[in-house]
Amino acid sequence: MQCKNCNNHIPVETIQICPNCGKKEFIATTSKPPKRKFKQKKTSSMLQKARQNLANPKQIDADKCFVPLNIQTNGKESLRYPVSMPYANIIQRITASFIDYLLFVIIFVLSLQTIHIDLFILLIAFFCYQVFMESSSYQATIGKKILKIYVYDDNGKRLTLLRAITRNIFKKISLIFPPLLLIVIFAKRYKSLHDLIAKTSVLYIPE
Asked: What does residue 21 show for φ and ψ, rounded to 5 degrees?
């Protein structure tokens, strides 16, 4: 219903006086009142990039991988959008491994001077450390975390415990037979033997 005098829209049909001008003459209307326009909230650049990647998947570089990331919007809710991230290169992976094994050597030397833990027990503990860290929400060991590289499966998801165990078993086999480590030089996306077998990828994700 609409006021004939001031054209004010009256949402309640039983009203007898226009609250705007005080007149009593009305005309019936069938159209709905205009909707209020709200300002669209600005989205983060990461969220915009993710939506562009979803809209144009063919434009993604072959050396990049879709990985789900938590994107904070308005500081309240967390959305998961696939974002293209580059694969970690050889130097990043070697440096991360060097940091991890350096920590292992330091702990081993300290253990010899204090509680005298057997080397075999330390190796088992180091293996469990790698497995649980890569399958946890961190998705990286301390060395990888410092280099900002993270382990995902080939579907862009977090590693299961079984996949992390498989990956690290074949990683130790590669260390026993060093020529197997050269696969990373020739393989696409810098994948080592343990990555190819466990179907995992190591991605560089700068924070």
From this structure: -120, -10
